[in-house]
Every structure is written in C-alpha cells, then in structure tokens.
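As described in the Methods, two query proteins were run sequentially through the folding procedure within a single session, without resetting any intermediate state between them. The first query and its resulting structure tokens are shown here.
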Amino acid sequence: MSARTAASWQTSLADLSLILFMIAAAAISRQQGHLRQEQMTQAPQRLPSPEAAPLAIYLAAPGGPPLSRWLAGQAADPRQHLTVTVPYGPAPGDLSSALLQAGHLADEAARAGYRARIVVEPGPPPARAVLAFDDVVARSLLAPRRRTAEGTSLR
C-alpha cells in the first residue's frame, strides 16, 4: 500500500467525521431552539425554581443586623423570592435548634412583609437568606430587548 493511498482514505474519513459532527450540532441546536420556544410560551410557574439569580445575600452572623431590618433596606419587588437556608451539624440537638432558628428567621421575614422559603440542610454555619428572582424571571429580565421603529421596546 502506498503512502498516497493511506493519506487518501484518512482524508476521506476526516471529511466524513466533520460532516457528521456538523449535522449533529445543527440538529441539537434546532432541538434546543424548539425547547426554548416552548418554555417561553408556557404559562408562568406558580412555584419558584430552586435555581435563581441572587440579588442580595444576608448572613446571620453575630453582631449583624436582624433579618427584618436587612429586608427593610432592600428594594421591594413582588417577583422576588426569599430563601432562608439554615444549616445544622452532626450533634443530636443540632437539627432541632436549626429548625427553631429557621422559624425565627421566617417570623422576621413575615414581619418585613416577605414569605420565605425555608431550607434546613446539613452544613457549616451561619444561616443565610437570599433575595432573588427565580430563574424564569431572571432570564426574562436579562433577555435582550428589541426596539420597534417608534423606539418602544419589545421582549
């Protein structure tokens, strides 16, 4: 077998691999485009998604302000969600004290006019609160706006 014949079949194989890759990439891109379009036409979700774009983070550290005062200093937006995460350790009473702390933080949030989603999970302290838009709202806010001929913006 000559060197020229070997190079010929290798080039053909490389060309076919490249063509197969381009076809697969185009098909995946089209499929993801359809999925994105379906998501945009669906009704808004009633429950916020766990993935969110955080706006502000509060840490329940010693000497820090209470959660209600921190929330009072934040810009209010009805599309925002408050998630309070309280960690607990491996000791037998840690879970009970974490649940108690979560209840206190939820009460503080309620006094400030927020309904909090509470998460109690194993991990190191301190407790934290995250004020965020849910993922669907965050994507719509970050989406580029189109301008009409009159200068008004469209989504």
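Immediately afterward, the second query was submitted; its sequence and tokens are:
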Amino acid sequence: MTRFKSQKLGYSSQTKMDIYEEYIESIIQMADQAIDNGQDDEAKRWFERGLCEEPGSAKLHFRMACLLQYGLDDKAGAEQHYLLAIKFKPDYRNAYDNLAQLYLDNEKYPGLENLMLKAIKVEGFNKTFAYENLGKAAEAQGQFKKAIALYRKGMMQALDNYDVDDLKDHIKRNKYKRLKKRWKLWQREN
C-alpha cells in the first residue's frame, strides 16, 4: 500500500536521492563561494549547516576536512572529518590520500599505519598506495628492512610502470639508509 501511494504521488527513491545530492551540492557551492571571497570562517559555517542536516555525507565531511587542513590550519579537526568521510564512504580515495599526507606531515606514523591497514581491506582500494604509505611510515621510523618489504609488496600490486619506478626508488633509498646505519654501528664497535 505504501509503495502504491508513493508511486501515485510521484515520489521515488531516485527523487529523494536527487534532492539529497542537490542539497549537498548547493552547500558546497555556497562554501566554495565564501572560500573564493577569502571568508574561510563563513565557508566553515556553511559546511557545519550542511552536516547538521546531512551528518552522514562523506562529501561534506571531506570538504570540511580540506577547509580545516588547508584554510584554517586545524589539523585535529581535519583528521576527525577525514575519518568521518571514510566511515561513511569506506572507498573514498581522496580522503585516504589527504589523511595519509596529514599523518606524514605531522609525523603520526601509527595513525598512518592504522589507516593503511584499514584501506588494504577495502574492496577495490589501490593497494599499491597503501603499501607505499606503510613503507613510508616504516622508513620514517628507521625500520628500513620492513620498509623495503612493504615497498616490494606494493610493487607486486602495481599496475602502472610509474608506480613501479617510484617504489624501486624507495627501495634503493632504503637499502642505502640501511647500509649507512650498519656502517655507523660497525664504526662504533671498532
């Protein structure tokens, strides 16, 4: 009976989805206009309004995170909104990219590792990207052997020659760092 009424009135789930998307796009448009005018605080208010109405919108959380990270220099707030964007859309590649960079820039390697281990489990996610970032976290912590192994796993997942070349460069750099570390230890002992 409910199905008949909604069809009779002309409503459909597609129409509801269109209204939802239109609302989100209008909020983003207003926020972008405020950003273009140099009014980052006004843009933040637009995103906050949108998130009050649509708290499960990954797109709004992502855009808010970008504003917080790049416009308002609120790293903690940006991290929170990137994580919410990923929660509501687990395969949101741009959110993973930006959050991974945020973690790298702020030397939050355990956070980066947790994020990439989560990303690897997402169906269809670029595992080369995940292994590369896991390797970067290990490298930054001086775990060169582990970094090399992770970069090699990334190479096995790569479907692009550019990715393979980048990973080869990472491996080469880590081999050099590992050798240099061993050399310093040997010098201390002798």
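Residues 144 and 174 are 5 Å apart (CA to CA). We note this only descriptively and draw no conclusion about the first query from it.
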